[in-house]
Amino acid sequence: MIARVRHASQSLTFRIAALLALALLPIGLISVATTYQLLQEADKRAETNLLALTSAAAAPEEAFIRTGIGAANALASLVPLLRDSGWACEAPFRDFLSRTEAFSFAGYMNRDGIVTCASDGLGRDGSDRPLYRAMRDDPRQRITVASEPLVSDVSVIAITVPVMQDGAFNGYVVVSLPHGSLFRPLEQVSANRPIDLITFNAQGEILTSSRGMENVEPHLPANHSLEDLQFEEDGAFIDENRNGFLRVFAVIPIVPGQVFALGSWEHSRNSFIGGASLTSSMLFPVAMWLVCLGVAFFAVQRMVIRPTRNLRARMLQFMRSRRIAEPRHEPATPRELREMEKTWMRLAENVLHDEAELYDTIHQRTVLLKEVHHRVKNNLQLIISILNMKVRKARHADVRDALVDIRQRVMGMARVHQELYETSTMERVHAGELLRALIGQTLRSTIDEDRGVVIDEQYEDIVVYPDQAVPLSLAVTELLTNALKHLAAPDGGKPRLSVRLVRDGNDGAKVEIVNTIDPDRDGNVDPHSSGLGLALVRAFSNQLDGVAESDADAERFRATLRFPIAEFDETQRSGELAWAD
To answer: Nearest Cα to 105, choosing from 92, 91, 114, 94?
Structure first.
């Protein structure tokens, strides 16, 4: 896998794509940064608009609550005076309710928790109420929710103010504001962007909600508690609600430190195709960067990569078939690449011209070499004919044997030159064919058919240089001459002669000549013991960088010649194949 990636990374396509991506990356980053800034500005505008809308939506509630606080403070200051003077105290409370229809109750609860002066419900005992105990323990102004009030039949917002006399708690005044009196229809505030609006006190209790008190919790911020949202000034933030939807929240202090309004609406930036939104991601600038990259790469593909691949394909076709295909230029191909292709065509034509001249030179050389080998072979044949005449006229056996030995050696050299002349590949010789022809000719001219010699021959296809073929054939001739000289029939059998040319390992060859001998004959002669034959075999073995060995037993004699096969130069061919691949 790593090798494939490394190989792909070295291609022109990959590198141009990488460079284009790198070149266009700053544009993409600038687009992302610009889009991010626009989104931030859109968020700020949404927060500012929501603050204004929340302030407008909460204005009536703020007016009611401030009115109730003012009335509660005024009545709290009147209670001691009315009580000390003996005046009837119910009149001011009833008069307050008659003037402000939004309020449902106004009254005074003494320090024992008994309603002693109120618009309604006189004499009721509220000492068991949590609000009374809280006011008794910590007498201060409070704005709380009473779901089951002492006097009213509906849930109310209770605005309580302590009554202090000589620094001691002496009861408190409570003014009740029903939930139903709050919140005008939100459509009157913003018909296009409706908001959710709630009010809450300093203890985090929800006082009112535009959705109703039964369905408030899911619409509160998921990561902010109401206690954390008691801002001293107007503030806004973006967060998910507890339903998991992203929304913009705005907090307005209605009564600083006591009552706050929390408005929210859907977090929606500038929407575009199909209702998709830039709020969730930066896909738009990334998509633009990818489009620019694709357009640039397509242009490079048409103008550079495709013409380059076409030129390479024509080069490969020329390399394999030596045919020059006519170019088919596309309109998008640049002038530089067209000129490069013309230059390559001229180069290919020059190569074909040079190859033709080289082939002609090689042909002339081949003809000349064949003629040389042919003339050498004819001259050696002439020498063999002269030796044959001398053999027939020789009167002494020693002279005849010496002439026969010389004739055999000359015949071996003539056969080598004949093989080099007849083969079509002048620089290579098939050693098996050469030895088969040479040994066959020697056996036909030496062994009489009446002797009944059993001959076993095996030749593998081994290719050698002419420099190896000549000493090999001469060495084999010497070994074969020695074998024929001492060839004899063993007891109860026929004379046997075995000649084998086989491979010896991966890069070597072996010639093995085995002949039977007379077991009763004393002093069987070893061809490597002495004489001219021994010297010639050693000399030819050295030329082959080989070694000659022999061994014998009672019935047979074996001579072995081992030599390495010279490697042929495949550099040029391998280079062509590698370039083609």
So the answer is: 94
Q: Closest Cα to residue 69, out of 165, 171, 127, 140?
A: 140
Provide the pLDDT for residue 10: 63
What's phi and psi for 500, nearest 5 deg?
A: -135, 135
Alpha-carbon distances of 533 from 49, 254, 406, 452, 526, rounded to whole Å:
119, 130, 11, 27, 10
The residue type of 464 is V
Res. 325: pLDDT tops 60: yes
Residue 474 Cα distances to 90, 386, 538, 548, angstroms: 151, 20, 11, 13
Query: How far, in Å, CA of 158 to CA of 12, rounded?
Result: 79
* Residue 531: pLDDT band with limits 50, 70, 90: low
Instruction: Check if the beta carbon of residue 46 is closer than 8 Å to that of residue 271.
Output: no
| DSSP character string of 524-539 | PPPTTTSHHHHHHHHH
Convert the pLDDT of each residue in 95-109 to its tens digit: 888 877 778 888 888
Spatial contact of 182 and 64, defined as CB atoms under 8 Å apart: yes
Candidates 434, 406, 417; CA nearest to 533 is 406
CA–CA gap between residue 173 and residue 75 (Å, rounded)? 7
Task: Give the pLDDT mean for 246-262.
Answer: 87
C-alpha 483: how far from chain center? 71
pLDDT at 411: 79
Strand partners, 161: 173
Beta bridge partners of 174: 107, 160
Average per-residue pLDDT for the chain: 79
Q: For 346-385, give one letter per residue: b (16+ CB within 10 A) or e.
A: eebeeeeeeeeeeeeeeeeeeeeebeebeebbeebeebbe
Residue 385 tokens, joined: 């004919």
User: Per residue in 406-429, is it b (16+ CB within 10 Å) or e — as a string?
Assistant: bbbbbbbbbbbbbbbbebeeeeeb
Distance of CA 275 to the CA centre of its chain: 34
